[in-house]
Amino acid sequence: MEADAHPIHPGRVVTEGFRLRKTPDNAPLRSLLEKDRARCDAEFCCSVFKECWNVPSKWQEPEPVKQCHRDESCEFVPQRAEGAGMPGLKFYSGTKNASSWAMRAWLALRAAGLQFEEEIVDIRRPQRFRNLARVAQFSPPAMVPVLCVDGVVISDSLAIMEYANDMCEGRLLPADSLLRGQARSLVAWQHSGLSGICGRISFESAFYPLKRKLATAELAECRRLFDWLERLLRASPGPFLFGAVSLADFALTPAVIRLTRHDVDLEAWHAVGEWASAILDHPLVAEWMREADAQPPVWLEDYLIPGASLQELADPTVG
Q1: How many CA atoms lie within 13 A of 154 on its CB side?
Q2: E runs forming strands in 252-311
Q3: Least confident of 73-82, 255-264, 284-293
Q4: Structural domain that includes position 9
Q5: Is there a domain that residue 318 lies in?
Q6: How buried is residue 281: exposed, middle or buried, by Cβ count under 10 Å (0-12/13-18/19+)?
């Protein structure tokens, strides 16, 4: 391999004569080299490859670099894993006491026994807009969570949870096909509309030092959910919805947290109460919550019901 001074960037070198394995991951790099060998320097910017590469003279494949030296905006650009064997995973999470969607995906990944690097993306305002714009450079939805597997992007919590289940041979869903379909229907419900139940009782509000009591309409929404879960749990060997912990349990975990922390009365739903306790006592849930509880509260303006006053928070019996 020969190396000459780069004609435009002093201190960099033009690399010629090295060989790259013909793998799909290397295809973009090979294509660029074949088109313009004379102008390819030893560093390839993330603006071209969505990753930063360094090509040492004695290597057959590019080696990842942790930070691009040309583009400061690549702070959140996914990095390719070093070494062979298991895929390298990087998980872009959100602020722990504000990102219930990241929590669901994180629980599934950890329960599947997958090792991953985690990067917390601050989604509090006003920095959320700048930070999510950076995420958009490699994940079009511009939201968290995002999972990068050897540079391949998997966005959306549901897709990440399904990937985690695949990687642990389906252990996070029931083996029975009918029960598996039922579990997936719960996950889909959470993803498509269940999060709207008690919409003002956000995940963020679970961490407020002072909380309001649930309104009559919110209690009615809770009853609809708890009635359905009670029927499921009475048919389950327990302690979780389908026996062993599953994606369905993890999908509903943030709802359990935000409602139980508002002292919802579960006396009429004995099985739901036991299940909620099992969820909150799960080691992975407890680990996330320890970090979340240590964060400053993220106040949302629509928490209070229209017409209510701040006195309601100081004295929950008011109203």
Answers
A1: 18
A2: none
A3: 73-82
A4: 2-73
A5: no
A6: exposed
